[in-house]
Design goal:
Low-confidence stretches: none
Number of domains: 2
Distance between the termini: 26 Å
Order of helices and strands: EEEHHEHEHEEEHHEHHEHEHE
Shape: globular
């Protein structure tokens, strides 16, 4: 099955041509155009700016992907229809509907967050093997921090997550407090790298880390950073960034460990933009070592928003819809 996939939920405009195989999902071509540099001038994503840039980019991006492709070999069109910014979603959805109709191809709708999870099925080398289900998924992104159980039919059950800020949102807000650039995740990563391998002082709390549930909270951690920056004691901002990053990693590790101790699974599927964070990746791998469970992490280039993961999701769990019936859902929930 060969799919042309489109992604436009936030400030990226992406298209990809992917093909399913017995060992996973193979990428034929993937293109991503981002307006993040432009958004950085505003300190965050401005929905109207993102949508205007996507209008400019979407046709060139798709054209680049399908250049020299025999459309007769394409089996369908897939698009992420939510969650996300409504203006951005409309662009991707309407273009996908138009292509499916004009090419007489099936149209597949994809939940953007399931797309992030599906990135773990993208083939990344000759020794690649697909994840084994049942699994636990840990989705950590700008808008989500969720733990799901995934059964053998790719049905998801939400079992835990944040009660306030998502992890990626906390990274962006803490970066702003520390005077770092947008997006916050990469900016904090650079600050942590500059701090070096010195022992990081524990100067921030670890909210809900000892709570015997799978709930997480990051709003208080963000507030604690603000209090430190505003206090009379002058802390090194790179040290604050380093301990913030460490605190987030420790909280996630504790909650994932708790989830695994009460459920029998074959693997853990980490997903979302924050999965690119070096310290979090390293910390999560220790959970696998401690409990003997395989921890799957997507390649760094497939952690952020991209269309290859949308195509992978459509291949793993195809949901065919009539073009006239598909509407974007900005507040779509994964389960």
């Amino acid at each position: 099955m060969k799919i042309l996939a489109i992604e436009s939920t936030c400030d990226e405009t992406a298209a990809a041509l992917v093909e399913g195989s017995r060992s996973g999902v193979r990428i034929i071509k993937s293109v991503v155009a981002s307006s993040s540099d432009l958004q950085a001038k505003y300190g965050g994503v401005v929905p109207e700016v993102a949508a205007r840039e996507q209008i400019k980019s979407i046709i060139p991006v798709i054209s680049e992907v399908i250049d020299d492709v025999d459309l007769a070999t394409v089996d369908g069109v897939a698009v992420s229809y939510g969650p996300g910014l409504i203006g951005s979603l409309l662009i991707g959805v309407e273009v996908a509907k138009t292509l499916a109709w004009s090419w007489s191809k099936p149209l597949y709708k994809v939940d953007h967050m399931f797309g992030h999870i599906a990135a773990n099925w993208i083939i990344n080398g000759s020794s690649f093997t697909p994840p084994i289900l049942p699994a636990i998924s840990l989705t950590i992104s700008g808008g989500h921090t969720d733990i799901h159980m995934i059964n053998n039919k790719f049905d998801l059950e939400w079992i835990g997550g944040t009660v306030d800020d998502a992890i990626g949102e906390a990274f962006d807000k803490v970066a702003r407090i520390l005077g770092l650039s947008y997006p916050g995740g990469p900016a904090i990563q650079l600050a942590v790298d500059s701090f070096g391998d010195s022992d990081v002082s524990k100067i921030l709390p670890r909210p809900m880390i000892n709570d015997d549930s799978l709930k997480m909270s990051f709003s208080g951690l963000k507030a604690a950073v603000l209090r430190l920056v505003s206090s009379e004691i002058k802390y090194n901002k790179t040290e604050i960034a380093a301990d913030f990053n460490k605190a987030v990693a420790e909280i996630i590790k504790k909650k994932l460990t708790l989830a695994l101790e009460h459920r029998e699974v074959k693997s853990v599927l980490v997903a979302g933009g924050v999965a690119a964070n070096k310290i979090i990746r390293k910390t999560l791998l220790t959970v696998g070592d401690d409990l003997g469970v395989e921890i799957r992490l997507p390649d760094l280039k497939y952690c952020g928003d991209n269309a290859a993961m949308i195509g992978a999701a459509a291949i793993l769990k195809p949901v065919k819809v009539l073009p006239d019936s598909l509407k974007p859902e900005s507040n779509l929930s994964l389960s």
